[in-house]
Each structure stands twice: as C-alpha cells, then as structure tokens.
Specification:
It is built from twelve helices and twelve strands. It is α/β, with parallel strands linked by helices. It is elongated.
C-alpha cells in the first residue's frame, strides 16, 4: 500500500470532530473534498472505515479503529522525527512570529523576547501588534504562529489558554490626595473608556457586573482605541478612566495622574495564549509556546 499522509490527516480530523463538515471547516476543505479523502483511504484498504449515523455523528468500523490507533502513533513519530532533525535543518535559522494586542506587545512580550533570546540566540522572534480580530485572522491564515490576546477568540478553529491576569487601576488628573471611593459612586462621574470590543473595556464591564452594575449606569463622555489618547484626555481633566496598572505606572510615578482606590478592589484584565487548532509547530515555535505557558513574567502581577 502507498499511504497518503494528507488523507490520514483528514481521517484523523474527521474522527476527532465526529463530523465531515466540522473537519472540513477546521482544515479549510469542502465537505465533498473531505469525503473524497476518506473514500481514497477506503479504496486503498479495501474496506469501510466509518459508518455515518442518521442522527448525526459517526462510528468507526473495526479497521477504522485500527487505522485511528496507528494514525495517532504516526503523528507522534513524525513530531519526534522533526524534533530529532531540528538541529540540522533550516529551522535553526527560522523565526517565530508572534501576534499580540497593544498592551501585550508593549508590556508582556518584551519579557519573553529577552528570555527566548537567551535560550535560542540564533532564532529571531518577530512581533506583530494589532487589534485582536486582526491577530485572530492572521493566526488562521498561517502568517502568525502564536498570539497573546486580551479577549477570547470566537472561532472554533482557534485554541486559547488562560495566560495572565493584569490588575487594572482607576485614575484621574493629578491631585494632592489620592481618593478612595466606591465604584457605585465613581460611575456617576465623567468616564473615558477604550473602544467597544477591546479587552480592557470587557474587563471593566465584567467588574461592573460583579458589583451589580451595568455599563449604562456609567457617565461615558469619550472613547478611544488608543491607551495614550485615553491617558491624555484624563490628564486634561475630561474625566477618569481605568487601564492595566502597567500601562499608567510611569504617569503615576511622574505625578501626572493620580490613582483612585476602589473600595471593592481592582478590576482584572485577563490575557490568553491563542494558536490555530492542530497547528504543527516546529521546534522553536513549540519552545516559545511552552515558554509562554510555563513561565510567569516577573514584575507584571
């Protein structure tokens, strides 16, 4: 028999998804194209591999179960082979392309870039900063290897792992005395927020909901897609705002802005490590992914 690795990849995805249609969406194939690959395998083996149920889903035949077992073993062997050959392949000079939202790009990725450079000085790390929707699109088209985002992707083709919680600080124009106030009173004052859909705004909304409040209780006077613009408007006395503490720490230290202590505690902005489902990482990409998932950045929490 002359095995086709692509057909085996399609077979494995159908088994995982228990659906030809879902497997096609994950692999970027039409449902007929998925069916054709399964038919090719069945012709090669001379027996059916799976039975589709009228109620949905599918059941593997006995030969299908055997093929599924060996497909998993072959996948593991290929990954082992890639790791063993990596020191002698062109991947020694390959880069890792990381996508991130603005906050992650400025305050999180530099820590991991430094650590990764010490471990793998011959591997370049390229960082693309953009809005989360753009980052997710680039993960799907393969132009990014892994990403750090402040929101959860809604595309089932992307995997996300909880990564980091950054405390947020409410702040206002500099005053001689820092205030301590309840969020229920503070929301009545003029508020400047990040744009709708941003991770920072979503984190603040979640915090409001935990306190029994909604965003329509707030007196929003301005919004912006830029953290710098938000800080500038607050510094001009237009209103108060909230951002991750690391974003405004310099302005607080310089006395340009004043923190507002909330009686209910501070909001938390969650970040996620995101990558394409079933992506085959090469050695450097896998190592950087494990670095993100296993090592907490010092000084940010």
């Amino acid at each position: 028999m002359e095995w086709n690795l692509f057909s085996l990849k399609v077979f494995a995805e159908v088994v995982r998804q228990k659906s030809f249609t879902k497997a096609g969406k994950t692999l970027g194939l039409t449902q007929p194209a998925v069916s054709l690959q399964i038919q090719n395998l069945e012709k090669l083996m001379g027996c059916p591999l799976m039975i589709r149920k009228k109620t949905g889903g599918l059941t593997l035949t006995k030969p299908g179960e055997v093929l599924w077992l060996y497909t998993q073993k072959m996948t593991e062997l290929l990954e082992d082979l890639e790791r063993e050959l990596q020191p002698w392949t062109s991947q020694r000079d390959a880069g890792v392309v990381v996508g991130c939202c603005c906050i992650a790009g400025e305050h999180i990725v530099p820590f991991y870039t430094t650590m990764f450079q010490k471990r793998r000085p011959q591997i370049a790390l390229h960082c693309h900063v953009g809005r989360c929707k753009d980052i997710f699109s680039r993960l799907l088209d393969g132009s990014l290897d892994v990403a750090i985002a402040g929101i959860v992707p809604d595309d089932v083709r992307l995997v996300h792992h909880p990564f980091l919680h950054l405390p947020m600080t409410c702040f206002e124009i500099f005053g001689n005395v820092s205030r301590r106030v309840s969020i229920k009173a503070l929301v009545r004052e003029p508020l400047i927020l990040r744009e709708e859909g941003s991770g920072t705004r979503r984190a603040f909304v979640r915090f409001l909901e935990q306190q029994g409040l909604t965003l329509d209780r707030c007196t929003i006077v301005a919004t912006s897609e830029s953290n710098e613009a938000v800080k500038e408007m607050v510094g001009r006395g237009i209103g108060w705002s909230t951002l991750p503490s690391v974003v405004i720490q310099r302005e607080l230290d310089q006395g340009r802005l004043s923190p507002i202590a909330l009686e209910e505690g501070c909001p938390l902005h969650e970040f996620f490590v995101v990558y394409r489902k079933h992506k085959l990482f090469n050695g450097p990409q896998r190592e950087f992914l494990h670095l993100l998932l296993d090592v907490a950045p010092d000084g940010l929490i």
